[in-house]
Design a protein that fits this description.
- With about 160 residues, the protein is α+β, with helices and mostly antiparallel strands.
- It has seven helices and five strands, in the order H-H-E-H-E-H-E-H-E-E-H-H.
- Strands 2-3-1-4-5 form a five-stranded antiparallel sheet.
- Strand 4 and strand 5 form a beta hairpin.
- Helix 3 packs antiparallel against helix 5 and helix 5 crosses helix 6.
- The chain is elongated, with a radius of gyration of 21 Å.
- It starts with a helix and ends with a helix.
Length: about 160
């Protein structure tokens, strides 16, 4: 076997680095959403990325073959079948409901952006599931609601004591 044959079978360093990057993002993200962007312009994609930024989410395009390798390495189930055609991944590190809402709203203004599905933790999501997540209150709103519910009995008790 010649030296060129050996090198031809080794993956290129840039591809290995890209798979490692995707693997890291898959491991760190709270959720990953898959979208199709066929026909979208670069400014349109920038608008989507800007809409996701406040939710601590990244909208990134990788080759499907490299993404599939990273998925296999991490054991994340439920994304493979969405990786056909021009796809982008949204890695959510913060507010999952907020990121889903930003994607849903972006798909309304950018009809070429199609939500295909995703995963949250170990749960696979369909496109409808992602859109349903968009209707949930943000994490901050939920925390405020829980805090209000916990505080309500104390406020009532204090009000009754004060009224006497």
């Amino acid at each position: 076997m010649s030296e060129t044959d050996t090198h031809a079978r080794e993956p290129r360093a840039d591809k290995v680095a890209t798979v490692a990057e995707i693997t890291t993002k898959l491991n760190e993200a709270r959720a990953v959403f898959v979208t199709e962007y066929r026909g979208m312009s670069v400014p349109d994609m920038a608008d989507v990325r800007n809409a996701l930024r406040p939710t601590d989410a990244q909208h990134v395009i990788y080759k499907n073959t490299l993404t599939k390798i990273a998925i296999k390495d991490t054991g994340v189930a439920g994304l493979d079948h969405h990786l056909t055609g021009p796809t982008a991944l949204t890695f959510v590190y913060g507010d999952v409901a907020g990121a889903a809402k930003a994607l849903r709203d972006a798909s309304k203004t950018q009809p070429l952006l199609v939500i295909k599905g995703g995963v949250v933790g170990d749960a696979e999501l369909t496109a409808d599931d992602v859109k349903a997540r968009a209707d949930l209150p943000s994490r901050d709103v939920l925390l405020a609601q829980v805090a209000g519910a916990l505080q309500a009995p104390r406020v009532k008790t204090a009000g009754r004591v004060q009224a006497r």
